Amino acid sequence: MTIPSTDLEDFRELVRRGHLEDWPYRLLPLGNYSCRMPSILAKGRYSPGMDFGRPLETLTPTLDGDVLAVLARADAEMTGRQIQRLAGHGSHQGIRNAADRLTQQGIVLRRPAGNANLYKLNRDHVAAPWVEGLAGLSEQVLERLRNTIGTWAQPPVLAVLFGSVATGHATPTSDLDLLIVRPAGCDPDEPTWRAQISSLEEQATTWTGNDTRIIEYDQQTLPEKESEPLLRDVLRDGIEIHGSLRTLRRLTRAGSSQ
After folding, report:
1. Are 212 and 176 in contact (CB under 8 A)?
2. Bridge-partner residues for 78, per DSSP?
3. Architecture (CATH level 2) of domain 137-256
4. Whole-angstrom Cα distance, residue 203 to residue 206?
5. 168 — alpha (psi -120 to 50), left (phi > 0) or beta?
6. CATH of domain 55-134
7. Which helix (H) or strand (E) is 196 found in, with range?
8. CA-CA distance, 245 to 101, in Å (whole number)?
9. For residue range 22-65, what is the model confidence (pLDDT) as tens digits?
10. Which ranges in the chain are annotated with CATH 1.10.10.10?
11. Which of 231, 69, 244 is nearest to 159 (CA)?
C-alpha cells in the first residue's frame, strides 16, 4: 500500500499530539511499547545517519577510527587488548595493526611495556583537536539540543533524549528519539509551539543525518499515561535535555495515586 505524502504529513502531526488512534492505515506495535506506529515510517527515509557508537566512522569506516575514538576518551595509556575491549569492534590483531599505523602517522604514541605496547593519543599533534571533537560528537549533539530548546519562546516542561542513542546502543539507522512535555494550557496547534517542534526535528536531523522523532505529551494528561512502558523506559534511561526527570516522576506518580 502506498501512503500519499500528504497523509504522511498528517501522521507526523498525530505522532506529535499522541493521537495515533486517528491514523487510518494499518498500525503495528512499536517494540515493547504499548503505543502504535505505522508500518511505514513517517518520514519515509531509510538512509543511514551518524553512528553514535562509532563517531569517527563519519570520516573513516576502518578500525583506525575506533582506535582514535577510544584513545581520545582515555587519560591513561592502553594496551591493544584494552582498546579492543572498549571499541567493541575488530580483532586484537586488527586493533594493534590500526594502532601501529596511527603511530607511524604520529597521531598515536606507542611505548613498549614488557611483551606489550602501550598506546595513547598524541594530544600535541595538530590533528588531535579534530579527533577529540569527532570522538565527542554525542556530547555536541546534546549541547546543541539543550542550547536550541533553551532559546524557545514557549519552553517545554520537560525534554528528554531516550531510546538507543541514550542507552549507547544506537546504529547508523537509529532515530534520535525525544520526549517533550507540552505545558498545561498550551494548544498543540499554537503556531509558535508547532514551529518550535518542527524546527527542532529538522535541525536535529540535519546535525546528524539520523531521523529525529519527537513524542509529545501534554502536562495535564501525562498522569493518565503513567503505566505506559515508554515512560518507564524514559525514566530509566533518559538523558535530560531541558528540565528534570524528577518532574516526570512526580507527574506520573500523581496519576498512580489517583
Report:
1. yes
2. 119
3. 2-Layer Sandwich (3.30)
4. 5
5. left
6. 1.10.10.10
7. helix 191-208
8. 45
9. 444 333 333 333 333 332 233 444 456 777 767 677 667 789 98
10. 55-134
11. 244
